[in-house]
Design a protein that fits this description.
The chain contains 8 helices and 7 strands. It is an alpha/beta fold. The protein has 2 domains: about 200 residues, Rossmann fold; about 35 residues, no CATH class. Helix content is about 45%, strand content about 15%. The chain has a 7-stranded parallel beta sheet with strand order 3-2-1-4-5-6-7, with helices on both faces.
Amino acid sequence: MDLGIAGKTALICGASKGLGRACAEALAAEGVQLVITGRNADALHEAAQALSARHGVKVDAAAGDITTQAGQDEALRRCPKPDILVTNAAGPPVGDWRGFTREQWLAAADGNMVASILLIRAVVDGMAERGFGRILNITSAMVKAPHPALSLSVAARLGLTGFVKTIAPAYIKANVTINNLLPEQFETDRLRSNLSKIAAGSGRSLDEEIAARKAASAAGRFGRVEEFGAVCAFYCSQQAGYLTAQNVLLDGGMYPGVF
């Protein structure tokens, strides 16, 4: 299927590795020009060079922390008029909610809600004026099936989810869609880090925790980042113009509910 987005420009956050990198790979394969962000400048520039060499598209690197004003300003300076925006930021710490400080709650809200809202605000009206826009927020399956150890993430990401539902209908007539991708248990460094902390609290080794999680999954495995990137690319396509304000669960069938 030709997704109809060759020549478009995408701003992809947190794209040096993991799910953000998978989105960058999938969009670059469709001929989309990229501006990618990340906190590790060396890793980000390596990713930009690899993406450009592999897919033959222009890839610019905007190094910085996208959860800060400076990081957002740099990203938007390099990509002031994106056709596609993929927001993504590292999740907050795992732990008992009783032990988190006020500063940690505020940092979680900044990183996993407010930063995405500010980026959307900066680009969405321009997308509407130009008659095309696709915005995707990488959030978490935890907004549908919360885990006690991820309370910081759940609270912040639910705020973003509610915000998207509030504003998305106003832009669909202008061919601008805003959706959320909700991953669960994909093969990433972030997953291994979270499972390591959960394992430490349960008395299991990391390998034992990973084996138990895979065994409990209907799919019997973790998700592959390439699968996630492909879904991202479709939601950015011309064909996805009637899909907006959706929470797209990518969890291998783990969620037990109907809706």
